[in-house]
Write a structure and sequence with these properties.
four-stranded antiparallel β-sheet, 3 domains, Immunoglobulin-like, membrane, alpha+beta, Arc Repressor Mutant, subunit A, transcription regulation
């Protein structure tokens, strides 16, 4: 397998569509390739969002089901000799109102979700552009380190920009009601860099204000994060 072939496996790796040999080869490749590590982290975050119920759009079949219910409601043919019974009128009106309300609710939901997606897309594009600027900076330096805890940190720093792109990959989630938190260390002074969502095993973050940082680290914290690191540190990479 050529180096170019390995670079092309990011998507299949995230979708768990590789053979055992391909998976092992790609994991070895991730250790030394920041670009692929970042791409895998971003793809895994995207897949997690798509699986999140809060991101789901009301199913297109909703309208069909509502109108199918209307069609099952018995509607007698009108006869001039007999007035339409008020009770049936009320029933048909209720069904029609339900259809209108369902349509309005669906339309409103679509509009809100579309605006939310547009905002998130704009934010993601802006951050992606800044990540690219750090990775392509003339003074960009790549460093990576693993740990016995199964956590690997890969960081690309730009001293001129005072920014870094930090990627964490973990063999397993942090645990129930726990999460990974990323830190910058200036000597012995820690500064929180990011609190990752519960269940996260791969993430990439753009870190600013890194001029004084000499180490990046990861710890396992209570859900929501902590003000100071909880020992032990489960992963760290020195940039001094």
């Amino acid at each position: 397998m050529t180096n170019g072939d390995v670079h092309a496996l990011s998507g299949a790796y995230v979708l768990d569509a590789l053979t055992d040999i391909e998976r092992a080869t790609f994991r070895r490749h991730l250790v030394s390739c920041a670009t692929c590590a970042i791409e895998v982290a971003e793809l895994q975050e995207t897949a997690a969002r798509l699986a999140d119920g809060a991101w789901s759009v009301p199913p297109p079949a909703l309208r069909d089901r509502v109108f199918a219910e209307v069609s099952r409601t018995r509607q007698d043919a009108p006869t001039p000799a007999k007035p339409v019974r008020p009770q049936r009128n009320r029933r048909l009106f209720s069904v029609a109102a339900a259809v209108v309300l369902a349509a309005v609710a669906a339309t409103g939901t679509f509009a809100v979700q579309e605006r939310r997606l547009d905002q998130q897309r704009t934010t993601a594009q802006a951050e992606s552009a800044r990540v690219t600027e750090v990775l392509s900076a003339p003074d960009a330096i790549l460093r990576s380190a693993g740990s016995t805890s199964g956590v690997r940190l890969t960081v690309v720093t730009s001293a001129a920009r005072g920014e870094a792109v930090l990627t964490m990959t973990a063999e397993r989630p942090a645990g129930a009601d726990r999460t990974y938190q990323l830190w910058m260390l200036d000597g012995t002074t820690p500064t929180s860099a990011a609190v990752l969502p519960p269940g996260t095993t791969s993430a990439t973050r753009l870190i600013t204000g890194t001029a004084a940082a000499d180490t990046f680290a990861a710890t396992i914290e209570p859900e929501g994060g902590s003000a100071t690191p909880t020992l032990p540190i489960v992963g760290q990479v020195s940039v001094a």
